[in-house]
Write a structure and sequence with these properties.
Elements: E1 3-8, H1 12-23, E2 28-32, H2 56-69, E3 73-76, E4 79-85, E5 88-93, E6 97-105, E7 109-111, E8 127-128, H3 131-134, E9 142-147, H4 150-159, E10 165-169, H5 179-186, E11 191-194, E12 197-203, E13 210-215, E14 221-225, E15 228-232, E16 235-237, E17 267-269, H6 281-302, E18 307-308, E19 314-315
Length: 320
């Protein structure tokens, strides 16, 4: 299916942009490594309008559910290159290439890689960075979570309701995370903590088959048989692959104007990836709507259609 709009990033900015884009009949594809981004690190959001208190996980899930109602499609992958071909943008990921007329950058910070042998080869084939995206694929199977802190424990908690067994692999000697979250995860009998273990390699030919672990105390190596590993290593800003495409500031953020337009025609940006100073979920969502409306108008202008001033009303530019 031909894409009108491709959105890179699946947190509050990207999901809002997807909702607005798809509502206006745009064939909308969202490419992301996970759903929720850094919002998943927040267990209690108290300043998002409409909710006295909600976790980042639950809020992101509501965003995705609404976007899906309007036909937004998803590819869970990482973008490694963006180029232009005439009036189209070509987006290359580890799993394939995609084209669109308009492009919205909304990736904020990207889930950090494990940086071990076999990871790149098996991305999307059992190596995942989003438990809520890919967890259901491993129902009643054995999986591992690689990472530390409450976000890793949250992933383990969710996966414990899906998988038959969840191994939480951590390098430290003690379980990393808040006491409350640790106790909650420990209450699930199908979760096993493997502390003082370093992941040396992800093994498998066509899919993840096992992890090669090193015992930090003895130095002994062992294989852990699993069918998926969910990487929860935090987040890092990755804007290097767009530095020759759009203008960045000294901090590596994408510079945008009031319409969320970048220096490159047809490319818009929103959320934490931009130079907007306040990094808040509600601001990211607001920017997402602006970026989507601006991107739609860009496409409408190319097609000789009237401009869009809101999410519900078309203004015929020829009569105004």
């Amino acid at each position: 299916m031909e894409n009108d709009v491709i959105i890179i990033g699946g947190a509050f900015a990207g999901l809002t942009a997807a909702i607005y884009s798809a509502r206006q009949g745009m064939n909308t594809l969202l490419i992301t490594k996970d759903i929720g981004g850094q919002g998943l690190l927040t267990t209690d959001i108290q300043n998002y309008p409409g909710f006295n208190s909600i976790s980042g996980f639950d809020l992101a899930s509501k965003f995705q559910e609404q976007a899906s109602l309007y036909g937004v499609r998803y590819v869970y992958d990482e973008v490694i290159n963006i180029s232009t071909d005439g009036n189209l943008f070509k987006i290359k990921t580890f799993s394939g290439e995609f084209e669109s007329e308009g492009l919205i950058l909304a990736f904020g910070k990207t889930p950090r890689d494990l940086n071990v042998k076999g990871e790149d080869k098996l991305k999307g084939l059992g190596v995942s960075y989003c438990s809520i995206c890919d967890g259901p694929l491993y129902k009643n199977k054995e999986v591992a979570v690689a990472g530390a802190g409450d976000h890793a424990l949250q992933a383990a908690l969710y996966l414990s309701t899906v998988a038959s067994k969840v191994y939480v692999v951590q390098k430290g000697s003690r379980i990393s995370g808040s006491e409350e979250m640790v106790n909650e995860v420990k209450a699930h009998e199908n979760v096993v903590f493997l502390t003082e273990r370093e992941i040396l390699e992800i093994l498998g030919e066509r899919n993840v088959e096992s992890l090669l672990l090193k015992d930090q105390k003895s130095g002994a190596e062992e294989k852990l048989k699993i069918e998926a590993v969910f990487v929860e290593m935090g987040y890092v800003a990755k804007t290097g692959f767009i530095k020759d495409l759009v203008t960045l500031n000294a901090s590596g953020e994408v510079i945008v104007d009031q319409f969320c337009a970048t220096s490159h025609p047809g490319i818009y940006a929103c959320g934490d990836v931009t130079n907007i100073p306040y990094k808040q979920a509600v601001i990211s969502a607001g920017q997402g709507s602006v970026a989507a409306l601006s991107c739609i108008n860009y496409i409408h202008k190319k097609r000789g259609k009237g401009s869009l001033k809101s999410d519900w009303k078309f203004i015929d530019s020829k009569k105004s």
